[in-house]
Amino acid sequence: MAENKRSRQPNGASSIYFGKDGKWHGRVTVGVRDDGKPDRRHVERKTKAEVTKAVRDLERERDKGTVRKPGKPWTVAAWLAHWIENIAKPSVSENAYDGYEVAVRVHLTPGLGAHRLDRLQPEHLERFYQKMQDTGSKPATAHQAHRTIRTALGEAVRRGHITINPAEIAKAPRLEEEEIEPYTVDEVQRLLLVAAKAPNSARWVIALALGLRQGEALGLKWEDVDLEAGYMRVRKNRLRPKYQHGCGDTCGRKAGYCPQREQIRRETKPTKSRAGRRTIGLPDELIKLLQKHKEEQERQRAEAVGRWQEKGYVFTKPDGEPLVPNTDYHHWKDLLSAAGVRDGRLHDARHTAGTVLLLLGVPDRIVDSIMGWEPGGAARMRARYMHVTDPMLKRVAKQVGHTLWGGEGDTADDADSQQGPDNVE
């Protein structure tokens, strides 16, 4: 009996038939195209058995949701350009977008852009990360590139452009956690002594005593500070400004230095997490400093007649505009130098505050609230901030010595030193 080489199948069902070209063909409906019509995929083989197997394989891919979308395959460069502007930009914070954009523009597109998206392999990524570090990039920079492309490729998987995310398989660049040494009480006192002679001196007291992040301190407004009741509310983060030319790009300078530059980014945004939105009690000494700071700001406002921009910020430039994070960072570096204190990151001021709170034996729940740590990660953060300081090491050494070799008795200082943080009221 002759083999039936073509039969009518129900709408949407796969079909297998022998063509006039002498080959066997199969057609499988795998979904719907962008125009609403069925997405029918075509395969052809020399024999019926081969085309049947190809059709069944394609049906299994369809059922698992791993069929690649139709059309010309994306390159990595094209997908990253599409993802950064059309997917990431509308959905993430300004700071997150800035990090993604730099990683894409500076590293990922030049290093991986020529690959076809569906042919990118974990080994390509691993060699790329190593090459970044071999040519001078820090491990943290390579790790940021890894996180960026992992996020971008994850979106490509969700949209059906690729079936697996090679960045989920690739080994991420190794990061060694940097050991942070908080400033000692003597160093903090020297910093505050020099800061008292500069504008916005209370800004550094807040950083070193309460551990506010840079964006939280610069985003603070007077409406969030109640000096009579003695507390402040942390609700906003100051964002890095971003500008565009106001001159039609005719000044020959970068947008940030254009004489007619225009701000195109909002000044603040809400804190990232619920834990970040918090209320903090103010020490009496800090209340006095903030009262003095407010009086000084009133004097600046009176002197800047016609120039003062009333926006309600606690820490401002002489015209009332909020401080710029980059300028604030350089002020911190200048402060360290003027005080003769070792160099450190601005974030080290926050480490110092966290360490002091823990050493004083402040209950964990209160420390978490002051520092703005999420409940799920608070224990890990406390462990990271509980630095072993020189005074602690000396106390332990004395205690070990008295235990092993004995002594005629503890001095008053020794007795005080044996009172651990848990005994501090």
TrEMBL record:
Q: Where is this region: Disordered?
A: 1-20, 29-48, 404-425
Q: Does the keyword DNA-binding apply?
A: yes
Q: PROSITE patterns, per this entry?
A: CB (PS51900), TYR_RECOMBINASE (PS51898)
Name one matching Pfam family: Phage_integrase
The Core-binding (CB) domain sits at 74-157
**SUPFAM superfamilies (alphabetical):** DNA breaking-rejoining enzymes
The residue ranges of the Tyr recombinase domain are: 178-398
Asked if the Swiss-Prot or TrEMBL record annotates the protein with the keyword Nucleus, the reply is no
TM spans (from-to): none
Q: Where is the composition biased (Basic and acidic residues)?
A: 32-48
Keywords attached to this entry: DNA integration, DNA recombination, DNA-binding
Signal sequence extent: none
Please state what the protein is called. Site-specific integrase
Q: Which species is this UniProt entry from?
A: Streptomyces humicola
